[in-house]
Design brief:
The protein is of the alpha/beta class. It has two domains: 7-211, Spore Coat Polysaccharide Biosynthesis Protein SpsA, Chain A (Alpha-Beta Complex); 212-303, no CATH class. The protein has twelve helices and eleven strands. It has helices spanning 20-28, 48-58, 77-87, 111-121, 161-166, 176-186, 213-228, 232-242, 250-264, 273-289, 291-302, 313-320; strands at residues 7-13, 36-42, 62-67, 97-101, 105-106, 125-129, 131-135, 142-144, 156-160, 190-193, 200-203. The strands form two sheets. It has a seven-stranded mixed beta sheet with strand order 3-2-1-4-9-6-10, sandwiched between helices. It is globular. The two termini are 27 Å apart.
């Protein structure tokens, strides 16, 4: 697999003592372990640093980077900043792949083995993931978070390094984990996720609830969609769908409110106008023809833009320029 199947994990975390051992154990149990796992402790004030110290002594592939406490959790831009604090410590030429992994997920044992295999089989796949599920405390059943097949999910973004270089990495702002997938398609690559049983993972803290609960998280998501360039019609359709998912009704309402508040306030949008036009054409196609069919047609059309790039980081940067 490329450079001997080597991949790196980069994990930003803050005050995750509640879930830390479950995440650490699930990675340690992988059939294909990472060559290095850089965990960025973003100013934790609970027992997270002690747990990380314990596991870094037990496993030589775990490296811990400590950052000063900023005083509060910062999602979006703060997460990306913490990610780069770890990403910049690895020698990128040593890897074909890396994964930005959150510290609140429990992975099945063959998770990375399967993702590596599928990316090796299809060199156009830039980023991929499995699907997140969360535990319903009332029923004890796992509930799908219903993330689209055309995206890799933000909590386990597995990346081909040369494409990551091609799109100039993650945007240091809200909706970074949506912009990157659309950027990949703009350049002819494929972003995707699969709902196979062996790739379903447990999201220990459901999507959008890490900072201030469901409502604040969904409002933030709607504001992020506005920043990314999403059209109002598409946002409305998306919010209506989300009303059918937990938390029923209020989740979709919160998303739409976040979007409309940013719209009425004339908040700034992602500055790449070409990207926003590309995104809106795709979203309107999804509304008119369905997301699965539109994504397949777009990937077929964009294939002419895809070019396999050199395996060296220097080569990637030259091609990107």
């Amino acid at each position: 697999m490329g450079t001997n199947g080597r991949y790196a994990l980069i994990t930003p975390c803050r005050n995750e003592a509640k879930y830390a051992r479950r995440v650490l154990n699930s990675v340690a149990a992988q059939t294909v372990r990472p060559a290095v796992w850089v965990i960025v402790d973003d100013g934790s004030t609970d027992q997270t640093p002690q747990i990380l110290a314990e596991y870094s002594k037990r496993y030589d592939f775990i490296q811990v980077v400590h950052r000063e406490d900023r005083g509060e959790r910062s999602v979006g831009p703060g997460v990306v900043d913490a990610f780069y604090a770890g990403f910049e410590t690895i020698r990128q030429a040593d890897f074909d792949y890396f994964c930005k992994l959150d510290f609140d997920v429990e992975l099945p044992q063959r998770y990375f083995e399967i993702l590596l295999d599928r990316m090796e089989r299809n060199p156009r796949i830039a980023t991929c993931s499995g699907k997140p599920y969360f535990l319903d405390r009332r029923t004890g059943k796992l509930i799908s978070e219903k993330c689209g097949d055309e995206m890799s999910v933000g909590m386990t973004k597995f990346y081909r390094l040369k494409c990551f270089q091609r799109i100039d990495g993650f945007v240091r702002g809200v909706m970074w984990d949506g912009i990157d997938c659309h950027q990949c398609r703009m350049h002819g690559w494929i972003a995707c996720s699969w709902d196979d049983a062996e790739l379903r993972f447990v999201h220990l803290r459901p999507m959008g609830s890490s900072d201030g609960g469901w409502w604040k998280g969904r409002v933030r998501h709607g504001a992020g969609q506005y920043f990314m360039g999403t059209d109002l019609a598409y946002m409305t359709a998306s919010a209506l769908y989300r009303m059918t998912r937990p938390p029923l009704i209020v989740g979709g309402v919160a998303m739409w409110c976040g979007y409309v508040k940013s719209l009425l306030g004339r908040k700034p949008r992602y500055e790449n106008a070409e990207f926003r036009r590309f995104l809106r054409r795709y979203q309107w196609a999804c509304l008119l023809r369905g997301k699965k069919r539109s994504t397949q047609r777009l990937n077929e059309r964009q294939a002419v833009k895809w070019q396999p790039l050199p395996n060296t980081v220097a080569g990637n940067q030259a091609d990107a320029g």
